[in-house]
DNA sequence: GGGCTTGGTTAAGGCAGGGTTAATGGCGGG
DNA sequence: CCCGCCATTAACCCTGCCTTAACCAAGCCC
């Protein structure tokens, strides 16, 4: 399930968008100004953000800049009536990933939202990180030619980590990606990480699954050689 | 250096684009149809592709589909005169990441190319100050290539100081930024600053963490050399 | 010069977060 | 129907971080 955030002060337009996205199985939270958006972003996890520019309290460009300053590289789509070239360039300069001019066709919005929400986490069918290699279709993984024996959840967990590598991934993000909306209550994640580590540590290799204190986990390769 | 591929059969337009991108320090190879594009893709590595749709030999949509079939998730920007909604949706359905309608402003093309080329490269958000370098997303810090071992609070503290550098930051401001609303009663900040200094002073470097009497603290670099 | 303030240094204790392990229960396949 | 795999849970341990308090050192004002 795709989970996105809309920051827009025009309530009518906002409800229209939220409803339409809902039909396309896209869950869309709504904030009516930048500050509210910032709040939601701190407590929830979204795949991408739609951002109006003209807003009270905190405008879209400022919010966009703020997020980038903080090192958040979540995809952002600017959604505004300003159609001049300068405004577009201003949007991109602030760190946005796409720029859609009002009025727009809902279907185009959906297409662009899906691209930003999904493509970023990749559609690649084959992932390689140092000695580790994942085949998404086959749900198989290899470490230095020897196959790993991974349960479904373990595989997905590994996939999420490798896709984000070398970035750290927050527990929240992992939970969302692996279990979706029905997350287990307890320390299931800890146990899975533990089992995963056991397999990864087994053979000597250049993969390390580190815990980032207070945040989550990160998988990295410490190979000096060429990195794709 | 950004390295991209343009697949376009209109030679005039192609040279214009290649020349313009060159001015922006973007290296752009050119293929005049899908098959040639495929060849170039097999022998070279590109950050993204610009794709015309109407072409002899192999059209853009087919090429796009082919690449996705093969599991290549390289970003693709469709570049075409077909401006109807159906055509756009067709482009996105084929697996493209963006869709720009001709004629377009060169500057907008550059902006979109840069976004697509950078997005996937997983480039980290970094703060650099002299010999010190912070990777926000990875939550890691390096001082002259050697990694620092920082606790969550220490990292945040350092981040706040580096962000403000060379300005001094008041104690109040630091407390707010690091602990938020639930601040410790005692001299916790002093202790953290102390530990931070210990690590920063360890190796000879050009970083100094000074206390500004009565105000707070400031981190600065005393390098004479070029400063970014 | 003395006490007060401001900032630096150090060690100790409590606590939380993460790691490890084993037991339970569901689900699917044989 | 039974067996085995796998996810989840609870319980436990342990490390290392944060806080705290206490003690110094240096300057300032009276």
Automatic annotation (TrEMBL), chains A, B:
Annotated ranges, domain OmpR/PhoB-type: 124-221
What does UniProt give as GO cellular component? cytosol; protein-DNA complex
Q: Name one Pfam family in it.
A: Trans_reg_C
Q: Which residues carry this modification: 4-aspartylphosphate?
A: 52
Query: What residues does the Response regulatory domain cover?
Result: 3-117
Q: Which Gene3D superfamilies match?
A: 3.40.50.2300, 6.10.250.690, Winged helix-like DNA-binding domain superfamily/Winged helix DNA-binding domain
The molecular function terms in GO held by this entry are: phosphorelay response regulator activity; transcription cis-regulatory region binding
Give the SUPFAM superfamilies listed for this entry: CheY-like
Which keywords has UniProt assigned to this entry? Answer: DNA-binding, Phosphoprotein, Transcription, Transcription regulation, Two-component regulatory system
Which residues fall in a coiled-coil region? none
Q: What is this protein called?
A: Response regulator transcription factor
What organism is recorded for this protein?
A: Dasania phycosphaerae
């Amino acid at each position: 399930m795709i989970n996105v955030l809309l920051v827009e002060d025009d309530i009518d337009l906002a409800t229209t968008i939220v409803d339409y996205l809902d039909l396309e199985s896209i869950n869309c939270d709504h904030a009516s100004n930048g500050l509210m958006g910032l709040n939601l972003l701190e407590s929830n996890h979204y795949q991408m953000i739609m951002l109006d520019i003209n807003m009270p309290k905190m405008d879209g460009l400022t919010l966009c800049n703020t997020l980038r300053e903080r090192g958040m590289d979540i995809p952002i789509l600017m959604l505004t009536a300003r159609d001049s070239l300068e405004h577009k360039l201003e949007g991109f300069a602030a760190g946005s990933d796409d720029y859609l001019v009002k009025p727009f066709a809902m279907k185009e919005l959906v297409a662009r939202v899906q691209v930003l929400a999904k493509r970023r986490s990749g559609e690649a069918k084959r992932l390689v990180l140092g000695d580790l290699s994942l085949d998404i279709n086959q749900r198989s993984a290899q470490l230095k030619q020897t196959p790993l024996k991974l349960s479904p959840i373990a595989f997905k967990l590994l996939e999420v980590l490798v896709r984000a590598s070398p970035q750290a991934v927050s527990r929240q993000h992992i939970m969302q990606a692996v279990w979706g909306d029905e997350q287990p209550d307890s320390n299931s994640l800890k146990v899975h990480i533990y089992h995963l580590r056991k397999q990864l540590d087994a053979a000597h290799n250049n993969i390390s699954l580190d815990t980032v204190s207070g945040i989550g986990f990160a998988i990295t390769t410490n190979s000096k050689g060429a990195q794709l």
